[in-house]
Amino acid sequence: MKILIFLSLLGAALVAADDEKVVGGYECGRHSVPYQVSLNAGYHFCGGSLISSQWVISAAHCYKSRIQVRLGEHDIAVNEGTEQWIDGAKMIRHPQYNSYNLDNDIMLIKLSRPAALNGYVQTVALPSRCPVADESCLVSGWGNTSAGGSNYPNRLQCLRQPIIDHRICRNAYPHLFTDNMVCSGFMHGGASSCQGDSGGPLVCGGQLQGVVSWGYDCAMQGHPSVYARVCRYNSWINSVMLSN
């Protein structure tokens, strides 16, 4: 059984945390997720979340030495007049990131200039607490929407899903799951984040509680998607932003 890192490399699945498109979701309302960004390297390859006018959170496995951050997007195939395209000036992975089990799968991107906040581009709050089981959350992205195939949408997809109890997650992934991770989704399968969604937001109660990280085959029964648990990183995030 392969682990997918939710990364999208021109539609190719990786043996790691692959960027996903949301399976079993729906098209988000236009610009209803104004903190969602697309990471671009000539093509969309990961998502991210704007947390201040000059900083974006994504997944460490989405790291590239050159990244263009695209904000204010809904349909990434057309120019809608709402976009801001800003180069990443610094890409800072968590110092304890483990590429083997995707522990500490979190990265900060400093923009080369501040984003203009408006009706299409807004920040999302960092968590003031950790998520709780059964809490309703929203995951979004341009990742694969087909659990058994490849179908990458141009328009942003959304999915409402609950936080899954920590013990259930640990039982689902007994050798890989750590306290720096959180599961969200449906144990019965049928809907989840997928390749191309990596690095994107899991927002619960208006707070960024997760960063799309990895999972087994998308929307697979008994194996929900795994996210970096953002509440574990508030101190690191604030210290990086202050020192850079």
How would you describe this structure in keywords?
mainly beta, 244 residues, single chain
What letter string, H or E per element, gives the SSE order?
Answer: EEEEEEEEEEHEEEEH
Percent of residues in beta strands: 25-35%
Shape, please?
Answer: globular
For the terminal residues, how far apart are their CA atoms?
40 Å
Uncertain spans: 7-21
Number of helices: 2
* pLDDT averaged over residues: 87
The tally of beta strands, per DSSP, is 14
SSE class: mainly beta
Instruction: Evaluate the radius of gyration.
Output: 16 Å
**Looking across the biggest beta sheet, what order are the strands in?**
9-10-11-14-13-12
Largest sheet: 6 strands, antiparallel, barrel
Report on the architecture of this protein.
The protein has 244 residues and is mainly beta. Helix content is 7%, strand content 32%. It contains two helices and 14 strands. A six-stranded antiparallel β-barrel has the order 9-10-11-14-13-12. Strand 3 (36-40) and strand 4 form a beta hairpin. The protein is globular, with a radius of gyration of 16 Å.
